[in-house]
User: Fold this.
Amino acid sequence: MAWSYFASPATFYRLAGRMAPWFFALAAISGALGLYIGLYVAPTDAQQGEVYRVIFIHVPAAWMSMFTYFVLACYAAVSLTFNTRLAAMMARALAPTGAMFTFVALWTGAFWGRPTWGTYWVWDARITSELVLLFLYFGFIALTNAFEDPRRGDRAGALLALIGVVNLPIIYFSVKWWNTLHQGSSVSFQGTSMHVQMLWAMLLVAFSFWMYTIGTSLVRCRAIILERESRARWVRELKAA
Amino acid sequence: MFTTDHAFYLWMSYGAAAAAIVAEIVMLRLRRARAAARIEEERDLETTD
Amino acid sequence: MNAAAAVPAPLAPTGSFFAGFAWAFGRDITLALRHPGETLLVVAFFVLVASLFPLGVGADPQLLARIGPGVIWVCALLAAFLSFSALFAGDYADGSLEQMMLSPHPMVGWVTGKIGAHWMISGLPLTVLSPLLGLQYGLAPDTLLALAAALALGTPVLSLLGAACTALTLGARGGGMLLALIALPLFVPVLIFGAGAAEAQASGLSPLPHLSLLGAGLILAVMATPFAACSAIRIAMD
Assistant:
């Protein structure tokens, strides 16, 4: 199977251009449905009232932030193993969206924390690990853009992503351990029972975020291809679009 | 829309998420436009040589 | 490599990990001894920053004893971090790194040797000095011992992780701040368990679980990080 056909930026460019709108459409539909269920259909929480509805953004964003980093690391591994440009470009394309969801997870976490736990920032294990994850994303973005030669940036960033994905569980475990020692109180949502509508809303929004991430990554990768492959003839022959 | 005393927190959360998504899309479109413009420019420079 | 294969076996130079390690270790230690100022700077920075904290938070003995282990650990982190640039940058700039890559010794050997020498001139002095700083913070003797033990196990891990990150940023724009952004998140577990060991001892609990985890981390780092550092250097040299 000529997989190398798909590794060609030219092929990917056309393919991604056709696929991206579908992903955005799926994102919009599932997102609207998920938010409808979450905001109107799901019942009020017995303990937290209405403000618990933040979780319909907070939890899917946190899931996406971690999943995206994992996918980024996979593309990094592929780019280092097969020395391909396209895999490295996809890793670069994923990073900003991943960082965005990490930020949203942290922000919504803070605004969920204030009314429920009394403070905007809690050194909760998961929130603190999210913060470290944000720094890992920033580090990746900074490193890949720190070199004149983009291929050097690709490879250095890929190695950093692999180091990061190996260290992320270690960091999470250490922060979790540290948190149980210093906090003592459990600050999770597990106190109340999760209605099935809440679960559906979260899953739908998570799916929506996932489709959105794929869509933006495809579009961003196309932009990166335009930036990097501007010398190539097929780019020159592109109609401006 | 949010009829609760904690409406502020819900608005800040959903609002920030919406703002982040919109900002990302806008910046992506700008990036794409800039890349396309650079290619146009290089193409013009080539044909004029 | 092809030239070496063409030469009859007895005449082709064979390298070994330990020979490479010894060579690089000896070289870097000798160079450091010729410029003792660099080592002393690391130490001076460590002491200086550790002295700033009481000025900032007040001299309340209970507070200082409470924050002492954490503060001393953060100072050690920063001091070690600042010395990373000296690890590969000099050799990268004058071309020695390129020459070393041509060595018959396996790359892992001499890279580990350089990291070992770096620890000797940064992590080890910090570990030895930590009891003195601990006294400044009013820590008890058993806490000082736990702190020193934790630093002894943790600073090599910092040197190893830092070496891989430094190699990644060789010749990059953004310099030290980029290195900080990349390396400091990876240091978090070492900080948590390192400071945790001393704090456990201070609260009357055993520091052994923390020290065991640090030891396990050290073994893991020694086995894995030199290879990551080698890959990073190869990426930098292409």
